[in-house]
Design brief:
single chain, 282 residues, 8-stranded parallel sheet, 11 helices
């Protein structure tokens, strides 16, 4: 498992563990199991309402804090300079950590919801994150669900280029143009919903590729993400699946298989669009 160097020099694991919907005892236990199974990147968010559970799971795992890369996010209702600083401190306390390894803007402000002030809302939020990074409270800063126009606008005033853009990325919806845009700017893509909300399990192509490699469909999809130079963030609360999802470094998909998966028609799309949020396309 080869680590990845971000554009700010920090090192991140090539696969993460997602914690969305993992709350209370279930969240604590799943984080503990994930770390003990070999995951070193944990992804949470204030919106998930499980930062306390993630923090407790870290402590119960027995894995040294310095070996764990913890990521959380500022929610859309807390965009702005002062609001972001306050939101970060709330998250840090809930996680019970002295610093956070990666802090993301969860969703960009957009014209629909912020009017002409959308660029300023993102810029002020980013400036707060830059200052928190300079103070040593955050190691790396990034964005989530940002399209090209949101990043272009952010870079007009940013002192720091985002290290990460976490986006929906899976067979059936992988945003190749946005991926290429980010790669050209040395921004690493993290893939949320890498299993397409479970839709991948009914796909015959993925079933045949999995059989060929004697791997699970989940492993094939996560390997596909890896070979696209993205960091998949699968989530699960069951021990078997947590363990299964990280066993993706002992095989490789062929160029033909990669292209076949690339060509899968739209499948498992969440309908969540940065410029339409909070309205969703069904």
């Amino acid at each position: 498992m080869k680590d990845i160097k971000l554009n700010d020099g920090h090192i991140i694991s090539p696969i993460g563990f997602g914690t969305y919907k993992a709350i209370e005892v279930e969240g604590i236990e799943s984080v503990q199991r994930a770390l003990q199974s070999g995951y070193r990147l944990l992804d949470t968010a204030s919106r998930y309402q499980n930062e306390e559970a993630v923090g407790k799971g870290i402590k119960l795992s027995g894995i040294p804090r310095e070996n764990i890369f913890v990521s959380t996010k500022v929610w859309r209702e807390n965009l702005g300079y002062k609001e972001t600083k306050e939101a970060f401190e709330t998250s840090r306390k809930k996680l019970d950590l002295d610093h956070v390894d990666l802090y993301l803007i969860h969703w960009p402000a957009n014209f629909k919801n912020f009017g002409q002030n959308w660029k300023k809302a993102n810029a002020d939020t980013w400036r707060a994150m830059e200052d928190l990074q300079a103070e040593g409270k955050i190691k790396s800063i990034g964005v989530s669900n940002f399209w090209e126009e949101h990043i272009d606008a952010l870079l007009e005033t940013a002192r720091v280029v985002p290290a990460i853009n976490q986006i929906e990325f899976h067979p059936g919806y992988w945003q190749p143009e946005l991926k290429r845009y980010c790669m050209d700017r040395n921004i690493i893509i993290e893939a949320w919903s890498p299993l397409a909300r479970g839709r991948v399990f009914d796909n015959r192509l993925l079933q045949s590729i999995a059989e060929r490699h004697q791997k699970s469909i989940s492993q094939v999809c996560l390997r596909w993400c890896l070979q696209h130079d993205t960091i998949p963030i699968p989530k699960s609360t069951t021990t078997e699946r947590i363990t299964d999802n990280i066993q993706i470094f002992d095989f490789e998909l062929t160029p033909i298989e990669m292209e076949q998966i690339n060509q899968i028609p739209k499948m498992g799309f969440s309908g969540e669009l940065p410029n339409e949020w909070p309205d969703y396309v069904q």
